[in-house]
Write a structure and sequence with these properties.
alpha/beta; elongated
Length: about 500
């Protein structure tokens, strides 16, 4: 008797060990898929409820994918959707038998009484589909991570890109009733009315430009475009300096073209009025050493945050930008420049498609973070082939590589310096030496126009016309810096102040 018990116990143990684990089934909801398809063939307006939620690949059963695809095709052709039309459509495509046959399709419509809960059911199907997609995605990433021939940095880039694709395809923003939006709009109007300068956005410190734009607005994508050597970087650095030092607004700068030290050197040249050649060589005159010692301290503790990651991907930018806004309360992002960015991890048919995706992503990021994003962009050579003062002014058609930049941007500005093209006088005989035009060619929520300012090529900086007339010493400008320091004596200033501008021998930037 005891032996039989032991034998029986052994058998039980053997059975437990021998029973294989059947594994995990992919997330699915077959019964809900049948209910949704049946409801779609019962009520004519049902498709409009689920069209933004479901795609053919959202269904787990391949036959259900074919049936939904035929329903989608009928709806897009504005044809009625019912059992007979779906069967005929599948026949026309040669997919009827693969989809289960006419009998199975008729049975689907019998499994539901109405389309009352179709939206709820559709959302469950969509969630199951997303779960399957994430499982396949993570499995592929895991497999590649075990492969020692795969570069980990490349894998991370690709992983981030594909994950971004999945989230963009599946995340939808809900609609909002207008009342809270009206309250926010009225509050913004009241805040702008209470400001003496009438600014509703972030002031750039350039008076004529701020009059046109009322400052850079939240969630706007601003494109600053120009031909090489026109001063794109000089313009945004002058603007960043104004914002950070004069208005104490935190600024984030992503420099894909220059290192952080080169960028800071440009800021030192701008603020301290020292020639770029002197900075590079270290051969400064006594006056320059004095200006460097007196003015460079204003850059210490300035709320300017620089990232000089080369070939930055749009996905890295999103991660870093969120961190800057969260940790440093950055109010504006500057990207120098757009064409040097990439969208690694995603495949594109052409560079134009990639740039289009980057510009769309930048606009989406500006909306998500609710701050303005200023991106620099190159222009094509069309400007060079045109003649005359007007012909040399850039146009929207000159934007390089993608018309999507023009489409996605809220504001498009061009930098134009007539002096660069040896145009020293306008049609009225006024001197254009040292004059820069910021041409607002597109303004989605305001007027277009031209803001004139001075470009000081010696110190690679842009200034208001009236500020320049006061003198070239930065500490003469009205700003919070004036409250902290004054020139030691007038003789020190006279060495680098100038009553007017002389034509520059070299129109290119100092470095």
């Amino acid at each position: 008797m005891e032996r039989q018990k032991r034998k029986s116990a052994v058998k039980v143990v053997e059975k437990a060990v021998a029973a294989p684990d059947v594994g995990k089934l992919p997330p699915q909801a077959r019964e809900l898929e049948e209910a949704v398809l049946g409801a779609l063939m019962l009520e004519k307006d049902a498709y409009s409820v689920v069209s933004e939620i479901l795609k053919p690949e959202s269904f787990y059963d391949p036959s259900h994918q074919l049936i939904y695809d035929s329903i989608q095709g009928l709806a897009m052709q504005q044809k009625p959707v019912d059992v007979l039309t779906v069967v005929e459509e599948l026949k026309r495509r040669g997919e009827l038998e693969t989809a289960g046959g006419a009998v199975y399709i008729a049975e689907l419509s019998e499994k539901v009484a109405s389309a009352a809960h179709i939206e709820y059911h559709a959302r469950i199907i969509a969630q199951k589909s997303m779960a399957r997609e994430l499982i396949a995605f993570s499995s592929d990433v895991s497999q590649q991570a075990f492969d020692e021939t795969v570069d980990v940095d490349d894998l991370m880039q690709e992983t981030e890109g594909r994950l971004f694709e999945i989230s963009q395809r599946n995340v939808k923003k809900d609609v909002i009733q207008i009342n809270p939006v009206i309250r926010e709009a009225m509050n913004n109007i009241q805040l702008a009315a209470n400001r003496k300068d009438g600014m509703s956005g972030l002031p750039t410190g350039f008076k004529e430009l701020d009059k046109l734009t009322s400052g850079w607005q939240k969630s706007d994508l601003v494109i600053i475009a120009a031909r090489p050597a026109m001063g794109k970087t000089a313009f945004v650095l002058s603007m960043a300096k104004n914002m950070a030092l004069d208005f104490e607004q935190p600024v984030g700068v992503f420099s894909l073209e220059m290192s952080n030290v080169q960028l800071v050197n440009r800021l030192i040249v701008n603020v301290c009025q020292i020639k770029g050649e002197s900075i590079k060589s270290g051969r400064l005159s006594d006056d320059e050493w004095e200006r460097l010692d007196k003015n460079h301290k204003f850059l210490y503790n300035a709320p300017i945050y620089i990232d000089d990651t080369p070939s930055l991907s749009v996905f890295e930018l999103r991660t870093k930008a969120r961190r800057l806004v969260r940790e440093h309360d950055v109010k504006i992002l500057i990207i120098d420049y757009l064409q040097l960015m990439n969208a690694s991890g995603m495949s594109f048919g052409s560079r134009e498609q990639e740039v289009s995706m980057i510009s769309r992503s930048l606009k989406g990021l500006a909306k998500e973070l609710n701050i303005p994003i200023v991106a620099l962009s190159q222009l094509n050579r069309g400007v060079e082939s045109r003649q005359g003062h007007e012909g040399k002014r850039p146009q929207l058609a000159d934007l390089r590589e993608s018309g999507a930049i023009e489409q996605d941007a809220d504001i498009v500005c061009f930098i134009h310096r007539p002096e660069y093209y040896r145009i020293t006088e306008d049609e009225r005989g006024n001197s254009l030496v040292g004059i820069a035009e910021i041409i607002v060619a597109k303004h989605r929520n305001g007027p277009t126009g031209i803001a004139s300012m001075r470009f000081d090529s010696e110190y690679a900086r842009f200034q208001n016309l009236d500020d320049y007339a006061v003198g070239r010493n930065y500490v003469e400008r009205p700003s919070r810096m004036n409250a902290q320091t004054k020139p030691a004596d007038s003789s020190a200033d006279s060495s680098f102040s100038s009553p007017g501008l002389a034509p520059q021998k070299n129109d290119s930037l100092p470095f």
